[in-house]
Amino acid sequence: MSPTAAKSPIGQPFMELSEVGSTNIYAMERLQAAGAGHGTAFFAHHQYAGKGQRGKNWNAEPGSNIILSVILDTSFLLITQQFHLSIMVALACHDLFSKYAPDETKIKWPNDIYWRDRKAGGILVENLVRGSKWQWAVAGTGININQSRFPPDIAGRAVSLKQITGKQYNVVALARELCAAMQQRYTQLQAGEWDLMLASYNQHLFKKGEEARLKKDTISFNCIIKEVNTNGELLVTGGIQDRFRFGEVNWLL
Known about the structure:
This protein is an alpha+beta fold. It contains five helices and 14 strands.
């Protein structure tokens, strides 16, 4: 399908699930069974086996947060442009969260949403590749909205929109807003506005121009965060090397 071909807007249809193991797994199964296509969004009120980056679990209080996976046509992108899509989804999540918490909302490389030094949301993009053709992606997002208590092991490192603003939100309505934000960013990606998107990403980059502590293998070190380049590498100064690929380092916060 060409990027100019007619497609359903992201969020149409919008499928609400009362309970599911993982919205990403559910969406991928529907996609592979030809039961859903581009734009279909799956929202779960309760997810009991959520997937996070690098095999981690994503735990969320039932009915309190955005748990959303959307199917995206990526046939107009090269297999080497996966970071382009990752940035698109991260920017959409930032667009939504910063609308309600405008001060100090950032994107932590590669694609977590942070408020101050606490995690407000995470993203997991999984791809469907056939041969050398990148045909589809499932973009899963988890954003803390109304949850006010977190497990003890992450309580000091997580934050929700309600904790920041003191307000209660309609989670489903916000999930639909996120779909609209994704549609805007997806249209920008289709139009080839990659440089503008990368500039916006770096504008909101967590710890940009500040000292951060990272860990590679067994070595921990301090460095200054510069920016992220077009290949998705994190550029730093004063570290054990000047650039890092995704998965090569961990943040020590």
